[in-house]
Amino acid sequence: MNLREVRELIGPTRPRASRLQRCNSIGELRALARRRLPRPVFDYVEGGADEELSLERNVAAFRRWQFSPQAPRDVSAVDASASLLGRRLALPLVCSPTGYTRMMHPLGELAVAGAAARAGIPYVLSTVASSSIEEVAQGGHPDLWFQLYVWRDRGLTRDLVDRAWREGYRVLEVSVDTHVAGNRVRDIRNGLAIPPRLTARTLGEIALRPAYWAGVVRSPPIRFANSPPATAGRGGITIENMTTLFDPTLGWDDIGSIRGQWPGALIVKGPLGADLAREAIARGADGLHLSNHGGRQLDRVIPPVDTLAEVREAVGDRPAIVVDSGIRSGADLAVALALGADAGAIGRAYLYGLMAGGEAGVDRALAIIAGEFTRTMQLLGVASVAELRAAGAAVLRAGAAADPSPRSGRAR
Ligand SMILES: Cc1cc2nc3c(=O)[nH]c(=O)nc-3n(C[C@H](O)[C@H](O)[C@H](O)COP(=O)(O)O)c2cc1C
Fold first, then answer.
1. What's the CA dihedral at 81, 84, 88, 94 to 10 degrees?
2. Does domain 3-398 fall into CATH 3.20.20.70?
3. 310 Cβ partners below 8 Å, 6+ apart?
4. Residue 219 Cβ < 6 Å to ligand 1
5. Span 4-34, pLDDT tens digits
6. 313: exposed, middle or buried (Cβ count in 10 Å: 0-12, 13-18, 19+)
7. Minimum-distance ligand 1 atom for the alpha carbon of 324
8. CB of 307 closer than 6 A to ligand 1?
9. Domain chopping of the chain, boundaries
10. How far, in Å, from the CA of 232 to the mean position of ligand 1?
11. Which of 101, 251, 346, 362 has the smallest C-beta neighbourhood within 10 Å, fewest atoms?
């Protein structure tokens, strides 16, 4: 089934465009998403591991920075575009990989990739996506990246890498933070299952959120689209058994051998700190994606943005550095760039848009962040991303403590 056919099937579940246009921040998209989605699905996106300390601290780590404007400067013409791994992006932003995205909306990964293409930024497809490498490639996004989880079955791993290259994916991101699954307490409490199971509780949810369920019923079943069902025994891969198929022995030598197999740009997703960053580059990586998986794996782990300055100093100017985990606004993105990142990346911020309004909702999320980022640059007195990078510490002052307003990882 292609994108047009799915769109035709689920068209009636789209919210009125005016509702999306009334959302003026990622926090407002989140609130709309929360009203539209069943609790277990919303919590799957929203939640973190264990006590959710990483999740809270990720958001707080961006918000503790205060701006120190360079005005007066001529900012009548401002250029928010940036270079990343040899490509020009309309905005220094990447849509991070998120698994099972069709659970959030029937168009799932196809909708996010489409919106990212329109916004002129890369989209990273997850190994555990619910749309296949080939389906997403057919959408024609010119800057697709593929995120790799290394399976115990190395033949399957090699096959995924070959498929991604064959289909024109430009960058391979290898995640190194998922040797075992994080302890997602909300999902356990909610009894989240993929594919969804029909229980008394699900039936109750259907009564409360009929539009969501109508979309699920009208579209093809949600599945792990890139993994042959045989890999997990007779039941196929489920959310419970999936991470047991990842290789817990994954080490630096494996990064070296993946480097040998992948002809394109290679990024390691998840190293935090100068030593690990240096090691990744020594093993042949072209860049680093500083990430703690949005606080969904190790709890109490250092916020990636707090490692940016030391990592940039350790690896120098050449390797690309992308940072995620906690970006909820264009101001957060400006902080990331001023601290030395080439680009920021987002997971939940676009998923809130997707849940609030499908593809148009992702468009809205990206437009909100682009508008905030551009305005922040102008008010800071920098006319281009290069100027923002060059100004660096001059436009930032560390605040005392985290901003008191948002509880946990929630957006404004
Ligand atoms: C629902 C959800 C699913 C995710 N799935 C994956 C995945 O399959 N692979 C991966 O490397 N990271 C995954 N991540 C982590 C994101 O790529 C990204 O690092 C994180 O969302 C960034 O934090 P933020 O949500 O605060 O922006 C997922 C995140 C979320 C919220």
1. -70
2. yes
3. 273, 274
4. no
5. 555 555 554 555 678 999 999 999 999 999 9
6. exposed
7. 22
8. no
9. 3-398
10. 23
11. 251
